[in-house]
Amino acid sequence: MIVNIDQNLCTGCGICGDICPRHILEIITRNDEKKVIVSPERSHLCLKCGHCVAVCPGSCIKVVGLKSEEFIPIKESGIHSDQLLSLLSQRRSIRRYKDKPIPRDKIHQIVKAAHMAPTGTASKSTGIIVIDKPQILSAFSEHIYKIYEDLEKNLKNPIARFFIKRQIGKKKYRSLLDFVMPGMHWYIHWYKQGKSNEILRDCPALMLFHSPIFEPMGSENCLVSAFHAIMMAQVVGIGTCFNDLIPPACNMVPEIRKLLDLPEDREIYSSITMGYSKYRFNQNPQRRLAEFRYID
Ligand SMILES: Cc1cc2nc3c(=O)[nH]c(=O)nc-3n(C[C@H](O)[C@H](O)[C@H](O)COP(=O)(O)O)c2cc1C
Fold first, then answer.
1. Span 194-205, mean pLDDT?
2. Counting CB atoms within 10 angstroms of each CB, which of 27, 162, 199, 211 has the fewest?
3. The pTM is what?
4. Superfamily of domain 90-275
5. How far is the CA of 93 from the centre of ligand 1 (A)?
6. CA distance 148 to 185
């Protein structure tokens, strides 16, 4: 059984069953006593999210694969809503970095936060790869520019264009033509001139988030995890920027897959460049939603 309940300790309070996202725990009455049991019909639906273990007042639940030492006691966060809003409002995408390495203890802090991100289906399948060695970043850049240069050439050929459109779908194709490639033309030009690297932006570290191809919420998991990383990075004084140009290139180019040692069944879904911000932002524009309303 995946979930084991110590029936000697269980008081049948049922809190575990109430919060179980997959409804696998049921209250039964046995000898006039309430007890919680694992539903024989639904036990296989368990996500191993650990909610039942975390909430049980009597510590009587164990889930196979979740070690008790991995559960951390919950303390008051002590964070005031104004502090969180201030943190969120001060975050900016940082695209210019100081030529200064990020100490790995800071990277570990950032990864720790990424690690705590919620995941669809409570999966623990998100992986993170960090490249913080200049020579590897430089080799990585070479491959990335090569693929975009080839893509630019291929997009000029109607037959190749047809196959690219069929492969990536109409929506991505339009975004490629209307948004990505017009800027990319210049990025390639400047890179070849040795003027600048507008894809990796000479970042001292690149963080890549990967997930199994068949993970139902893999790309969303990577994005949420990346955002956790971004917020922690801000707290420890590191600027970040999402980068959508890097993941597709990583997934397509065998040399990059090899460089990353990325297993065949995984893809990179999010990436963030990171480093100490070269410049200081003195003010931020108001961010607005398209709308916010209630239905009353
Ligand atoms: C999902 C997502 C993808 C993004 N991709 C890129 C990207 O590929 N390159 C880039 O320079 N910025 C990227 N950004 C950053 C946005 O351009 C940026 O958030 C936006 O311009 C607002 O600026 P701010 O982050 O400084 O508030 C991305 C942001 C999000 C949320």
1. 97
2. 162
3. 0.94
4. NADH Oxidase (3.40.109.10)
5. 6
6. 9
